[in-house]
Amino acid sequence: LLTPLLPHFDHRNRGMRTRLGCLSHKSDSYNDFTAILPDKPNRALKRLSTEEATRWADSFDVLLSHKYGLAAFRAFLKTEFSEENLEFWLACEDFKKTRSAAKLASKAQRIFEEFIDVQAPREVNIDFQTRELTRRNMQEPSLSCFDQAQGKVHSLMEKDSYPRFLRSKIYTDLLSQTQRRLS
Fold this sequence. Notes:
- The protein is mainly alpha-helical.
- It has helices spanning 5-24, 30-35, 41-47, 50-55, 60-65, 67-79, 83-95, 101-116, 128-137, 147-167, 169-182.
- Helix 7 runs antiparallel to helix 8 (101-116).
- The longest helix has 21 residues, at 147-167.
- Residues 1-30 have low confidence and may be disordered.
- One of its GO terms (biological process) is negative regulation of signal transduction.
């Protein structure tokens, strides 16, 4: 009775192994970074100086404020499957620029449902108290309703992901590439 089911099971199992194998081979390389640069990769790298790329190691905020630094960090977070943290932080930065009271509530709701709510599609890792405070803030959304959650996510990225980024192949390859251009 079980014999007819085994070939079907083996096929599904093999497919799952193949998919999981693809995940385990997620690359952490310079080429992954160039694929998501805001400009054409070669032109962007010609514009990026070794000095600029080296300054990214000065502080996390220096990295976030640089267009190519942000792109490189995003590429790195994708290799760690944690880009939702940066996406949430960027969504909050954009949200703070909202001038229309009519758009404020709908933008806040979208951010909450995408990143904060329990089992949100791109849920960020924040503690229960911060999640609940943000939920209460949603009753009367203001430009500061995500401040605590954004601060927690910024701190998490700065203490956890940022040091790993500075040691990553993406960053070291990028530095090497800019230095090679000089010689």
